[in-house]
Amino acid sequence: MVTLDPAADYYTLINTFAVEPDQAEQLLDELTRATREQFHNQPGFISASLHLDVDRNHVANYAQWRSRADYEAATQNADVKAHMARAAQVAKSFDPIFYELRESIEAD
């Protein structure tokens, strides 16, 4: 279960990929495979949640890492770099932005 807890002080990446609708599933499959096979085993990886927009023009990856240093170390791994190159080939563009989780509000 993914936990959104501001007190955890995780390093959060929200990466939005623009994609042609007929390639959305291919991109989603690539991101899923890479997360399970590459990122999942990297030190400091907490979780990733992949989202497909209803028009199939965008895929979003919401990922949590223990720290910025852990994320940056993972991106130096050759297998991770290969995944990032494959995903970039399928996507029209991507926009990775790093966030600090400040609030998480749940229903009563």
Automatic annotation (TrEMBL):
Domain ABM as annotated: residue spans: 11-101
InterPro entries tied to this protein: ABM_dom, Dimeric_a/b-barrel
Keywords assigned: Monooxygenase, Oxidoreductase
Keyword Cytoplasm attributed: no
The keyword Oxidoreductase belongs to this UniProt entry's keyword annotation: yes
GO MF assignments: monooxygenase activity
Coiled-coil segments on the chain, per record: none
Protein's recorded name: Antibiotic biosynthesis monooxygenase
